[in-house]
């Protein structure tokens, strides 16, 4: 039962740069997949084709056995709603509260002006509390985002994606700017959501050491090509 399938996917950027070259693989539902590769290998391109932040040049990507190229307008927005994305730099509104940052995850379902004015219901507030509980940050709900450590800010970003009830979380170098201690908190959080809530997680990492600790499976990219694809049981020190 695959949640995501790549079939002969190619991506060539407008300036001629090859982002992805004939990528083929399937991701089983509930897998914790780590994508490794040097800078420029195509990791970020690969992630962004899944929620169509980047359009592929040829081939097909399926989610739940449906080609995502067919989605337009409202259907595309709904597809994206169920795919949470987190980034290396967290993308939080720094001077805003944790609560408002998490609540903004509802945008798309929810009129933006309500968030801006803080006009949200007790039920919305309850959902924010629940999302923060999933990332172990409930006590920080009224803190300003930029008062938190990097690892805490990344967990706020994860809580924000939980407001969309994601089936898939895409994490693009989520710990690249964090120290080992806070990296662990972030990776543990992603792993818990994967294990306990069944969310399929795809993480780009340049650290194979971290990949080895968390992944069910590791794939490797080099110059846009998939050059490595192994379940974690087959990954040895030499890799
Ligand atoms: P596409 O619409 O093909 O997915 P984007 O909209 O992502 O492309 O990017 C538009 C332009 O931005 C590219 O054609 C390129 O000139 C520039 N660009 C953005 N990021 C990069 C990068 N990492 N390397 C080179 N050029 C880049
Ligand atoms: P990674 O995430 O592994 O560092 P990327 O997916 O960002 O790799 O980049 C893959 C290749 O595509 C690189 O050569 C990069 O410069 C290029 N690239 C990325 N985004 C764009 C863009 N918008 N326009 C043109 N080239 C890009």
TrEMBL record:
Residues 4-239 form the ABC transporter domain. SUPFAM superfamilies: P-loop containing nucleoside triphosphate hydrolases. Pfam families: ABC_tran. Keywords: ATP-binding, Cell membrane, Hydrolase, Membrane, Nucleotide-binding, Phosphonate transport, Translocase, Transport. SMART domains: AAA. GO terms for molecular function: ABC-type phosphonate transporter activity; ATP binding; ATP hydrolysis activity. One of its GO terms (cellular component) is membrane. It is an enzyme of class 3 (hydrolase). Its EC number is 3.6.3.28. NCBIfam families: ABC_phnC. PANTHER family: AMINO ACID IMPORT ATP-BINDING PROTEIN (PTHR43166), PHOSPHONATES IMPORT ATP-BINDING PROTEIN PHNC (PTHR43166:SF6). This is Phosphonate ABC transporter ATP-binding protein. The gene is phnC.
